[in-house]
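Case study 2.
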Amino acid sequence: MILCCLLLVMSAAAFGKSQNALGNHPSSYIAMHAADRVAWRLWGQEAIDEARREGKLLFVSSGNFSCYWCHVMQRDNFLNPRIAALINRNFIPVLIDSELQPALDAQLTQFLNRTLGYAGWPLQVFITPDGYPLAGTTYAPPEEFEPMLQELANEWNKDSKSLAARAQQAALEHRRTLPPVSDTLEQWAGNAATDALIRQALAASDPEAGGFGKQSKFPSTPQLQALLFAYRQRAEMPLQRFLILTLDRMVNGGLHDPLGGGFFRYTTDREWREPHFEKMLYDNAQLALLYLQAAQILDRPDYLQIGQETLDFILRELSSPEGGMMSSLAAVGKSMHEGEYYLWNRDELETLLTPAEFRLLGQAWDMQRNASREEKYLPRRIRSAQQIAILRGDDIGTVEKSLQQVQKKLLRARSTRTLPRDRKQLASWNGLALAALAQGAQLPHGENYRRAGQRLRDYLVKILWDGKQLHRVRAQHRQRTEGTLEDYALAAKGLLAWSQVSRNAADGRLAGQIIDGAWRRFYNEKTGWQLEQRSLLPVESAIAALPDGALPSASATLLSASLEWASTTRDSELRKRALVALNAGRLQFNDSPFGYASYAAAFVRAQN
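Prediction:
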């Protein structure tokens, strides 16, 4: 009896310690789990050692603050006393913020893709005490998640040695060694890569709604950026039609916020109508740059306005006092109703607007359809001011002025609502933002973007760069994590773009230092690229080429930046190193040009 009471006291103390560690954590995602019934640990050697001492599986759950289904997973499972007790009794539960631990998250994502054929947040992976992934899942409702936990616990208790050996063998089968490669590139390589990318991308495209796939629609910005670059090399009409169709549909559908600017993360349907309501810095930085460049390359002045509106959204909603940009706006608030910040019911609109303004809004928005999402309307731009002026026989200037007045009223009303932010300021995402601001600063009236870009440049240089290494994030005046390959590559890309605006040689030299640091930390001539310097998991995660995801390929980005910097400084050794690594990734690119789209631009750059 005394022993039982002692164990209960010790368990309660450990749970309290866990809650305190989470509640005081600078990650909004981790902090929001402080009230969970699960006794979460943070990722680190201490958690692995505990798993080894107790002979238990690590239960690693990865997600992020803006992810809608991560909030649902917490509500349905991690706050459930029965499921939490099952986890605490049989596993060592570890919670990670996918945005703070991108390398680990990538390894877990690769495991799920390999074993399930799909992945996504929240992801849950069970890892043996020796560090080998055994099983995993994404979101699961309680009626599925609880029996899965119980079955896995039973199997592990019954035959842990066999399961551990099976997990280790499966992991070791995926180790790779790079074949010998050349530091020269065939003259036709750039053209061949561009041909292959265009051919596969158009085959995967949706010719009716734009974008890729026939179900949910993501912006796939790295692919669109590579295709726009390809179109600039060769103005092929099928590619032009696809790019214009996609850029138009993304703006005029539910992916885009016509009131406050900016884009949501994706839509759940083929027609770009129904979004999940996260707004991510990385999406909006890339899309701002894409639309600004598309305005020039495709001769579409209206895209210039979209690019500027997206930059304005970033500066208004995501700027921090320190000069960096915050990570995201959440999809849900305390009420857990997804998208409530962006939705309107008819009574609200009629109260805020005059009858004439309400009629005008109906012509600009998709108001003729039935209200969606519990009788509330989501703004979707279906007509421009010019189209409305023609429809009404009005002067376009009058229509534009009236629409601006309507927008001001609605924005003022919307600003009284609550929308949580994830205030992390990540080096890689801020590198993307700096590249977009560099493009905006070159516009005729781009002085505001120039000032913001200088503040952001200073944040990267003075806060995240310490003179020797790049940090991924700084939170509450503490450096939290080492920079990853993603951080080094995208920060270098942003600084190189900014150096063209600032005309400051020091910006270019700093980009060169970061490029050099990335090669030393993240590339091995025998095994290839790795996302982080040191992994706590025993299996090497190095690979010849990293694919594009929501962000452009970190390895392709670093290769392009290296080739650009080598050309500027006439550094033949850096160019040779980049060509060797570029050639080493040819097999992956040839197998899937669409999945490695950013490599096509690197092949072209290597020949210039």
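Residues 1-14 have pLDDT under 50 and may be disordered.
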